[in-house]
Amino acid sequence: MKEILAELERRRDTAQLGGGLRRIEAQHKRGKLTARERIEVLLDEGTFEEFDMFKQHRCTDFGMDSQHIPGDGVVTGWGTVNGRTIYVFSKDFTVLGGSLSEAHAEKMTKLQDMALRNRAPVIGLFDAGGARIQEGVAALGGYGEVFSRNVLASGVIPQISLIMGPCAGGDVYSPAMTDFIFMVRDTSYMFVTGPDVVKTVTNETVTSEELGGASVHTTKSSIADGAFDNDVEALHEMRRLIDFLPMHNQADVPEIECHDDPHRIDMSLDTLIPDNPNKPYDMKELVLKTVDEGDFYELQESFAANIITGFGRIEGRTVGIVANQPMVLAGVLDSDASRKAARFVRFCDCFGIPIVTYVDVPGFLPGTAQEYGGLIKHGAKLLFAFTEATVPKVTVITRKAYGGAYDVMSSKHIRGDINYAWPTAEIAVMGAKGAVEIIYRAELGDPDKIAQRTKDYEDRFANPFVAAERGYIDDVIRPHSTRRRVARALALLRSKKVELPWKKHDNIPL
Ligand code: HXC
Fold this sequence. Notes:
With about 500 residues, the chain is α/β, with parallel strands linked by helices. Helix content is about 40%, strand content about 20%. The protein has helices at about 1-15, 20-30, 35-40, 100-120, 135-155, 170-175, 195-200, 210, 215-220, 230-245, 285-290, 335-350, 370, 375-390, 405-410, 430-440, 445-460, 465-470, 480-490; strands at about 50, 75-80, 85-90, 120-130, 160-170, 180-185, 190, 225-230, 295-300, 305-315, 315-325, 355-360, 395-400, 420, 425-430, 475. Strand 11 (about 315-325), helix 12 (about 335-350) and strand 12 (about 355-360) form a beta-alpha-beta unit. It is elongated and about 95 Å long. Hexanoyl-coenzyme A binds near residues 96, 130 and 168.
């Protein structure tokens, strides 16, 4: 018996070493943790249980029969994050560059199947060179199996991808179908085809960082939802994110003990809006002052910053926050902002997370660049997402709500549940100046007349009361009481239940 136990220990020790000490050292030299070290940081101490530690590939081509490393380049298993179950796979770059073989894919799909059956989130830690080149089509088949499970699990359990090294070929498409992608600055990059292929096909010379580094994917492509400075920070931030998310689409949103009075008032909000309607102010101040303890998990912070998206808590329960940001492009809705917010709203709706929307929007961004880029369809994505969402929706208009953007930003007309406005709200087809220039075009040569017309238009429409008279706004509230009113609205809506007419699925304008 003793010998049998010793043999188990010996096999475990070999598996734990992955590609060996030399490659582990190389991994550390690059500032990266190993696959197993990452799991240790991610999960609660001592909770990781590994599956398939001894699994090996079955390939015999190109000398692979002499290269058997137990575990085959991916560590899989489960553990807990602050006590809640999480399934995790972590690519081991020290084993054949973390490349995916048929056996490696089987480990991943086993985990995905378990997570879906048992309804708990999956987090994937990526550091890998794509399909195992020696295996050919068997590896491609393996990727297909992983992809199909990503799709089946979408909207049922949260799926998160953290990119912690190279991520090429097949390894980009699985993350692309998960709910969130995060990256580590300087050590991670993602692309479908690398710099060498790019050079051959398009004759462009680019580095890996320029092609698919964290700064590209958080600012230009919007593939990544955020980036962190190193592995440890990234993994700690994943723990923070997981705390906001429900386990699956039929679970309640997490509720933690609330040490911040939900009825807390904040007098400074009464002076947040500047006297000059064209002067910006920071909408994030309102977000931070209304969520519990100022704790806000922002997503896509560096992309389309004219709209803010992220998670917070009110009375201890997770809410999704969508807010126009007057500090960037005056908070206008453009294609990027619409796409960004639409995807976030759909995530919240999938997982039953109530949505709080703060509105200060001068309209959609005009111009050929926007129109040629498909603004109509991109704007429609946000309109569609807010409209189809059946979760509780609470909206507060702080200042401008002009034109189509008024309708889009979770208005009453698209099934907003509770819609409030601050007394500073201006709900109108457009700003007074633009409106007068159109309807009084003939008088444009007379500045006094135009000034009077503009004042008349402002007096009539630059307020929340015309909308309130029609019931489009449920109440005009004092800014300092926003947290209290939103918290009470969310409490009221806890029992909300609406169903969409039967359909196979909708046809959102992609
Ligand atoms: C087998 C691989 C491998 C792969 C890396 N390795 N990628 N082995 N299949 N795909 C091995 C290397 O041979 C090396 O082994 C070890 O992993 C580390 O790789 P290095 O090249 O030394 O590391 P580095 O210089 O850091 O470069 C990392 C890399 C590069 C950028 C990922 O290895 C690379 O470009 N790999 C190929 C990427 C690729 O084209 N993949 C196929 C994509 S096609 P030793 O023994 O020397 O340590 C694809 C199709 C799926 O994925 C499509 C589905 C939609």
